[in-house]
Amino acid sequence: MGKPRDLANLVATGNILADGAVAPAELTGVTATASELNILDGVTATATELNLMDGVTATTAELNHVDGVTSNVQTQMDTKAPVASPTFTGTVTGPTINASTALQIGGVAVTATAAELNIMDGVTATATELNIMDGVTSTTAELNILDGVTSTATELNILDGVTATTAELNYNDITTLGTSQASKVVTADANGDVTLSEELKAKSYNETYVSLSAGSTVDIDNETGNVFALTTNQNTTFTFSNPPASGTAYGFTLKLTAGGTHTITYPGSVDFAGGTAPDAPASGETDVLVFITVDGGTNWYGALAIDAAG
After folding, report:
1. Which helix (H) or strand (E) element contains residue 240?
2. How many whole angstroms separate alpha carbon 237 and alpha carbon 264?
3. How does pLDDT run across 15-58, given as a tens digit for each residue?
4. From the CA atom positions of the chain, what is the Rg in Å?
5. 223, 243 in Cβ contact below 8 A?
6. Assessment of whether the complete model's pTM goes beyond 0.70
7. Closest Cα partner for 255 from 300, 209, 204?
8. Is 237 helix (H, G, I), strand (E, B) or coil?
9. What are the domain boundaries of the chain?
């Protein structure tokens, strides 16, 4: 070689043995040992390629992270979903969940099946509404008892405190108000009337007594009682009103006291024995008369039961 060269110049030329010999002067500044120089044995990289290492601070372990990478790392990373708030398109296929890879929420393993989780599909209930079921031990069949119930809470609360059995409650199951039935409660119709379909046995039988007011015309209202009393103060004409419908018998008793010498006139529909009404009681006396009808008051039958009783 015609001039001394340092190691840098030797590397730059790419051929340190071009002239077939290396003079001591040509290794000026070289402090590397033969072993260190032999590291270059077999290196085919150019100076430009070797200079890529200039400024690299990564360790061997860090450089080995790319061991096995066969394509651009950034391109591969761009195809991966971020850990935070990823956005997916198309159909996402998740891993199979099994006993060893249980899905956990807040550290608690989810054991529900897909079918069980799908029960929530379309549920719009709030947490508060769902919590209504917290502690419910009723079965499906028991809950279904309410299916179709339209009663309000107030109406249902009517049963609060009821101790009657089903059989006892069924005593109220009647066909017609006001008409008695076997093994049922007795009710009155809209007019307050009661029709007994069978016999009535009473320990004591009482009738309603009505004291009538004196006047020239006095009405005996059959709806108000069965025993009537009147003390006259003038000539008096009686009328009878509101008898039951034809086919139902009705009778009443009249206690008639004369407050003076007065005439008594009865309705023309009343038929007395012999076709003649009894005489009016004398002043201060009391007569007792009875009347019955079976055809709604079209015809009445009257009789003097007690004459001059007082």
Report:
1. strand 236-241
2. 6
3. 555 555 666 666 677 888 888 888 888 889 888 988 888 888 98
4. 61
5. no
6. no
7. 209
8. strand
9. 7-52, 163-201, 209-306
